[in-house]
Amino acid sequence: MTLQVQLVAADRSVWSGEGSIVIARTVDGDIGVLPGHEPLLAELASGVVLVKTTEGEEVAAAVHGGFISVDADTVSLLAEVAELSHEIDVARARKALDVASNGGASDDDEANRAAQVRAETRLRAAEARI
Amino acid sequence: MGAQLRVVRRRIRSVQATKKITKAMELIAASRIVKAQNRLNATRPYTIELSRALTAAASNSTSIDDHPLLATQKQKVRAAMVVITADRGLAGAYSSNAIREAQALSNLLQEDEGYEVVPYVVGRKGEGWFRFRGRPVARAWTGISDQPTYEHATEIADVVLARFLQPTEEGGADQIHIVYTGFKNMVSQEVRVRRILPLEVVEEQEEAGAALAPLYDFEPSAEAVLDSLLPRYVRTVIYTALLESAASEHAARRRAMKAATDNADELIKSLTRQANQARQAEITQEISEIVGGADALSSVTAGSE
């Protein structure tokens, strides 16, 4: 049994294929979805989504805000912004992290924290590639 | 060369130069329609999945009726409308059609239902229209109409959502409408008016009846999921409207520029005829002058003999 996985961002379809396990971070904590999972609709937190494909490869993506829905072995990951690990510009993410952790570009603390989380997520997703 | 011939030739050259420009604009617009269409199609998976999730969350949520984004039992004081127009002209009646429809909507809201209408405008053309008539615009976004991104849509959605959630007494809007140009196909686009807020969920529940929605397990809860789904849904609606309008704008521009190119062709044809006629007239005149001169000469010589 395999999972039909599709990862879609608001403006494009990022990745789709067959997977054996999907690991994602919801607002309540990390979850792993295996074939035969009950129907689930959960809110995703900013985090790394990991899909192990049936060929044994690992696909990692940075996802910022969205949903995971599981139904009849079909997993849909919806994200407003999603990037596959190889699409991530590591240098830029590192720079963004530097800016955000050193007080940030704006005066808004919440926005800074969000920027920091985003940058960290992207770096983690990028590392999952190696 | 005669004076008239010179004038006509100059006009031909100027029309030819204009034709080159309109032809180029036509080709550019044609290639952009395809790109805009592709972008529109790329959003489809997200939109479909999102409305499916929304339907599931809404039908499992207990407090649907008092959700702030769904409640229709609001006061009837103020309504906001988002009007999507072009940044640049030379697109035929594209912007004016949208504006006309917006005008009809605001009349309807004002006169029949007694709302105060607050316009939000996308595109320089719409902004100029409102400014010229001295009507206050709550907010205008310019420079995004031909290649809108999701970030633009998010920005617009956040502004109108904030306005909607504001209490009416403090200037909040009780309804949000959007006026955009729907892209049917290359040759036909139509202005559409849609209410974005409060959202209508009824319609989507009917769709769910077709394919039975599974019994989802919600995390953290159906209400919380619905809460964060709804603003995203609003963003997608606005994003789709922006993309459709962009595709329509390019299609309208292509059509207008095609008409202009065809017109230039016609004009060149009739001007060329005029030029030929003028040249022929000149030649005829010259010949008759020569013949007349020769005649006069020969009659003078004949007389002297």
Describe this structure in words.
The complex is a heterodimer of chains A (130) and B (305). Chain A has 130 residues and is of the alpha+beta class. Chain A is built from two helices and seven strands. In chain A, strand 6 and strand 7 (74-84) form a beta hairpin. Chain A is elongated, with a radius of gyration of 15 Å. Chain B has a five-stranded mixed beta sheet, with helices on both faces. In chain B, strand 2 (116-122), helix 4 and strand 3 form a beta-alpha-beta unit. In chain B, helix 2 runs antiparallel to helix 7 (222-304) and helix 5 crosses helix 7 (222-304). The interface between A and B is medium-sized, with 26 and 29 residues. Strand 4 of chain A pairs parallel with strand 6 (217-219) of chain B, so a sheet runs across the interface.
Summed up:
The complex is a heterodimer of chains A (130) and B (305). With 130 residues, chain A is of the alpha+beta class.
Keywords:
heterodimer; A: 130 residues; alpha+beta; ATP Synthase, domain 1; 2 domains; 5-stranded mixed barrel; 2 helices; 24% helix; elongated; B: 305 residues; alpha/beta; Pyruvate Kinase, Chain: A, domain 1; 5-stranded mixed sheet; 7 helices; 12% strand
Low-confidence spans of chain A? none
- In the CATH scheme, the class of chain B would be Alpha Beta
Average of per-residue pLDDT values of chain B: 87
User: H/E order of the elements of chain B?
Assistant: HHEHEHEHEEHEH
Looking at the structure, what is the overall shape of chain B? elongated
Provide the structure class of chain B. alpha/beta
Q: Tell me the structural class of chain A.
A: alpha+beta
Order of strands side by side in the largest beta sheet of chain A?
Answer: 1-2-5-6-7
CATH architecture descriptor text of chain B: 3-Layer(aba) Sandwich
Let me know the number of strands of chain B: 6
Q: Count of DSSP helices of chain B? A: 7
**Rg on CA atoms of chain A, Å:** 15 Å
As a whole number of angstroms, the C-alpha radius of gyration of chain B is 31 Å
- Quaternary state, please? heterodimer
CATH topology of the largest domain in chain A: ATP Synthase, domain 1
Count of discrete structural domains of chain A: 2
Percent of residues in helices of chain B comes to 55-70%
The biggest beta sheet of chain A is recorded as:
5 strands, mixed, barrel
What is the helix content of chain A? 10-25%
Count all strands of chain A and give the number: 7
* CATH H-level superfamily title of chain B: ATP synthase, F1 complex, gamma subunit
